[in-house]
Automatic annotation (TrEMBL):
Transmembrane segments: none annotated. Keywords: Acyltransferase, Transferase. PROSITE patterns: GNAT. InterPro entries: Acyl_CoA_acyltransferase, GNAT_dom, N-acetyltransferase. Gene3D superfamilies: 3.40.630.30. This is GNAT family N-acetyltransferase. Belongs to the acetyltransferase family. RimJ subfamily. Residues 18-182 form the N-acetyltransferase domain. It comes from the Bacteria. The keyword Transferase applies.
Amino acid sequence: MAESEVREMPERGNAPLVRLDPWAETDFDLLRRINAPEMTEHLGGPETEEKLLERHRRYVDIVGKGTGRMFSIVLLPDLQQVGSIGYWERVWHDETVYETGWGVLPEFQGRGIAAEAAVAVIALARAERTHRYVHAYPSVGNPASNAICRKAGFQFVAEFDGEYPPGNAIRCNDWRVDLTTELTAEA
């Protein structure tokens, strides 16, 4: 899919229709809004402006590196940016896999937007035909993100002790989707 293309997901049940737009230079304000304390509670808290600028640069540049993709989540039909999602390479248990993560602004949470976007991003990662798995690692104390994993068709693998950001201990769940099989998300 070209950088200027978007991915629209058909409506399922009461879930809103979303579109994933490739992350752009103009999305820095969205990243700032996602960096709020209530959005980063399970991720060690808000990042500094410097770290946020570094993150934004990584998001913009990732496509050119061929190691993943980042998107803004756009709510249709209003074309309102409501969050971010993406996938990127990482080594997990001696295997290169994709990791995914998302954030939906508080006023749009609880509507199925993140699950809809996760299904879309899994389809995009699957189409790359690069890695077998995509993983999500929400905190065990984040019931909303763990529910999104279940709803989007991830399979629970195990709990583990991790660090995020570096130096911040966090207990996480490892959720995984096999990209070589078709996704069966909950309705």
